[in-house]
Amino acid sequence: MHVGLLKIRLLLATLFMAIIVPLTCLSSGAAGLADDPKQPAQRLDIRTWLSEDEIRANPHLVITVTFSLTQSGMVEGTPEVKATGSDAAVLKKVTDRARKAVLDSAPYQLPPEKYDLWKNVELTFYTDPAK
Predict the structure, then answer these.
(1) How many domains is the chain partitioned into structurally?
(2) Residue 82's domain spans which residues?
(3) Angstrom distance (rounded) from CA 131 to CA 125
(4) Tens digit of pLDDT for each residue in 85-94?
(5) Between 131 and which of 60, 77, 110, 126 could a Cys-Cys bridge form, CB atoms 3.0 to 4.6 Å apart?
């Protein structure tokens, strides 16, 4: 793996472990996350894209979102979304919602001095809680 990509993944893992994971562990569940849809971390939670029933019905769903950011934290171009592990209707739904969530979350507030580490982003979301 390219060293730059590895650093990006490590930085993103650190950022999202600090932001996303605590939110997804809230005892209030998805309803609590949807309370303030203006928060980027809340829009980037898969539980705001699918109902709990849809998540349970699609335990092997994997969504990977790839996008680039400008130095001001805006999304450059259109995010690429790949989804696997379900039927075409669910894949289309999560693909559209993931792309919208990434775009609606901009501008991302990330340290400008680390731009080389976060200018290219790849995020992977799983419905399987073991992942």
Answers:
(1) 1
(2) 3-126
(3) 9
(4) 999 999 999 9
(5) 126
